[in-house]
Amino acid sequence: MKDQDGFPVFEDVVAAHERIKPYIHRTPVLTSSYLDELTGASLFFKCENFQKAGAFKVRGASNAVFGLDEETAKRGVATHSSGNHALSLSYAAGRRGIECTVVMPRTAPEAKKAAVRGYGGRIVECEPSTSSREEVFAKVQEETGAEFVHPYNDLRIITGQATCSREMVEQVEELDAVVAPIGGGGMVSGCCLTLSNIAPGVEIYAAEPEQADDAYRSFKAGHIIADDAPVTVADGLKVPLKDNTWHYVSNHVTDILTASEDEIVDAMRLIWQRMKLVMEPSSAVPLATILKNPDTFKGKRVGIIITGGNVDLDKLPWMKG
């Protein structure tokens, strides 16, 4: 089903949830009294770092892969990704028994490359820029004829990601706000799709690194502004918004908040120390922005999506040398 503008409706989210249930975890929501006291808010952490393949992106990838007809599936799937979508699509393709080819930046974390290969995916490397990624991918798709599953601008992906916030609304009563990291905007768009339908009073905040703040600048300008190769410790948030995700962000997001590199690393370390959660720098950006903007969240019940746990343990950002 689609709405009058051709975008998914909530019934599509319900159908996607049924489709992907055998291949995902219903991840837990955890709390921390220490972080509640520190922020002055009641925080609820939706732990997608415990998800299959270690990230929320397995939701959208599974929805896309298991929604393919048999003829299309035979040609396999292909994508470009800095990591979590790559390994999630490889995971889903492996479960369906079809081929998966992924274009990844040569600088992507080794842990993510190893996971892609472990799930049976084939990696083709590119330079760490959006232009190089798309150029190399065009050649790969021409060679393979595979179905392109975009990391975030694919409506099948957005609908799958929307199942995360659907679960969170079922798990936590009376949320006032949800904060999720934003790069290309797939997870935030999924939140918009779900919450605008079943919890329209919940404010939606997107959290972004200052050094990769194209979504923030787009939001303020009223049109997409794309950076080609930003540099940030939050490696999962380097990609720009596209037309489908911009539709959701521009229509439903309350605000986009940013955090510095030091603030992101400090928030990541805080969660590791206090909650014992292995999570990526990208996942720490929401807490970093809450700590930076206490008046925005004080006294509110706030859902935070911890998007992934595929961190390179040999290169933690607070390690020296």
State the order of secondary-structure elements, H for helix, E for strand. Answer: HEHEHHEHEHEHEHEHEHHEHHHE
Which segments are poorly predicted (pLDDT under 50) over 5 or more consecutive residues?
A: none
Count helical runs. 14
Overall mean pLDDT score?
A: 94
Largest sheet properties: 6 strands, mixed
The CATH architecture category of the largest domain equals: 3-Layer(aba) Sandwich
Tell me the Rg in angstroms.
18 Å
How much of the residues is beta strand, in percent?
5-15%
Report the principal-axis shape: globular
From the structure above, extract its key features.
321 residues; alpha/beta; Rossmann fold; 2 domains; six-stranded mixed beta sheet; 10 strands; 46% helix; 15% strand; magnesium ion binding; Serine dehydratase; L-serine ammonia-lyase activity; BHydaspDhtse; threonine racemase activity
